[in-house]
């Protein structure tokens, strides 16, 4: 049962020391009750209070890690029903299905597709995150053989082992020891066997009531009973599948699950949801995936990878899972385009992702090797940053001096965006020996501007 802010307040030290970043213990307690902060931020909370508050302050959707190392992905930890209430936390994981009935060549080519799926968009790496190996053959030996190929060729990629056959599950999961895989396919018949395997191999369990995996088709009630049973047997890391497969069911079930977890703090459904979107028609598969991304699926299993589909789904996922209150930013540094020399031009802009991508795209289009200084303005665009006092002459001068660019170029000329032409004199005052050139107001003028400069 969730505690109210006042109940939480009674358990806090009540010293108002502000170490947690909040002005009072009461303010901290209120945020904790809304699950918008973490108890760890109060260093003085007693052990007894920690224990009592642990449950209340735990995220309503349990955090789960899939995989190990750099490619591990996190799911769950969601605290809101709607993105505008705060933010969605851990992006849906996209997993490509590999059937154990496929030929070795087909398995290899699917693995290659996953390994080559990464793209860079507004400074973030986006990719197909995981592989779901499915036991279509219902043969433990064949499943193990397919899993072996994945374990060898894609050893770093997180894996979901999909089978209701506990023998097959054990044969496959052995190959991913210490890789924190998910064994999906736990139903009311195989619960004890699957729990024992998960304990031995430290795996997460995927609990299902889908009839395709030996489940009863009993919906959310049955699913809640099953997660409680798995938990009582000692496994806390769980992902859930209500058996929803069509669009209507996915929206209904996922919404009910999220509401139960967030609004009622109903623990038996407070787990990440796995959705199976595989369809013969790629467009329909993409649409089902869109529904999953928008409506609370933490893992979505796809049957195929197509570039168009990836681009659309990656973009949607990225947009929904960014914090609406924090502008997207790229790293502050000097970016190189082509192979610039000590005579190449130097331009400057701000680190708002969209600004960076438009400007860098036009610098690339110019085919003139160049340096682009991207300055940290907390993700604001050029004019907004200037108006907010973050893109000023003294800050630009300081950034340029500290960037080390003076070691890379012989000239001392910097091109500033046309919209902040007003800064040119002040920058020349602050950056001794430098000449400031005013560039185009719009980024699409950059190619002609750079080519003209290069022709001089
Ligand atoms: Fe209160 Fe703890 Fe915050 Fe200090 S750090 S104000 S004691 S909640």
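Q: What amino acid sequence fits the structure above?
A:
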């Amino acid at each position: 049962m969730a505690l109210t802010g006042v109940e939480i307040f009674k358990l806090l030290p009540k010293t108002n020391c502000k170490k947690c970043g909040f002005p009072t213990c009461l303010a901290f307690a209120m945020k904790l009750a809304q699950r918008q902060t973490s108890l760890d931020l109060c260093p003085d909370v007693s052990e007894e209070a920690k224990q009592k508050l642990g449950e209340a302050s735990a995220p309503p959707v349990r955090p789960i890690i899939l995989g190990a190392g750099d490619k591990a992905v996190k799911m769950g930890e969601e605290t809101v029903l709607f993105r505008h209430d705060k933010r969605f936390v851990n992006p849906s994981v996209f997993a490509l299905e590999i059937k154990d009935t496929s030929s070795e060549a087909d398995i290899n080519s699917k693995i290659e597709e996953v390994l080559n799926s990464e793209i860079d968009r507004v400074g973030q790496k986006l990719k197909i995150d995981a592989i779901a190996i499915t036991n279509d053959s219902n043969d433990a030996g064949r499943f193990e053989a397919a899993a072996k190929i994945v374990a060898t060729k894609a050893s770093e990629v997180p894996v979901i082992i999909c089978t209701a056959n506990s023998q097959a599950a054990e044969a496959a999961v052995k190959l991913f020891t210490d890789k924190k895989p998910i064994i999906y396919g736990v139903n009311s018949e195989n619960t004890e066997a699957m729990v024992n395997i998960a304990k031995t191999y430290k795996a997460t369990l995927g609990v299902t009531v889908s009839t395709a995996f030996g489940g009863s088709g009993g919906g959310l009630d049955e699913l809640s009973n099953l997660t409680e049973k798995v938990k009582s047997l000692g496994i806390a890391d769980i992902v859930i599948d209500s058996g929803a497969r069509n669009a209507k069911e996915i929206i209904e079930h996922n919404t009910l699950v999220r509401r139960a977890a967030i609004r009622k703090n109903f623990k038996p459904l407070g787990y990440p949801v796995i959705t199976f979107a595989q369809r013969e028609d790629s467009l329909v598969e993409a649409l089902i995936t869109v529904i999953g991304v928008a409506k609370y699926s933490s893992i979505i299993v796809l049957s195929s990878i197509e570039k168009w589909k990836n681009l659309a789904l990656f973009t949607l996922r990225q947009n929904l899972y960014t914090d609406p209150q924090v502008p997207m930013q790229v790293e502050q540094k000097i970016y190189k385009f082509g192979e610039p020399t000590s005579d190449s031009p130097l331009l400057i802009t701000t680190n708002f992702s969209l600004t960076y991508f438009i400007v860098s795209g036009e610098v690339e289009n110019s085919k003139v090797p160049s340096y682009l200084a991207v300055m940290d303005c907390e993700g604001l665009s050029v004019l907004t940053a200037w108006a907010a006092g973050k893109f000023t002459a003294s800050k630009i001068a300081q950034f340029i001096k500290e960037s080390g660019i003076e070691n890379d170029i012989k000239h001392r000329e910097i091109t500033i965006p046309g919209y902040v032409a007003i800064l040119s004199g002040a920058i020349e005052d602050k950056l001794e020996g430098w000449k400031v050139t005013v560039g185009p107001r719009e980024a699409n003028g950059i190619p002609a501007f750079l080519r003209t400069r290069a022709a001089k």
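Q: And what stands out in the fold?
A: Residues 5-57 form a domain with the 3-methyladenine DNA Glycosylase II; Chain A, domain 3 fold (CATH 1.10.15.40).
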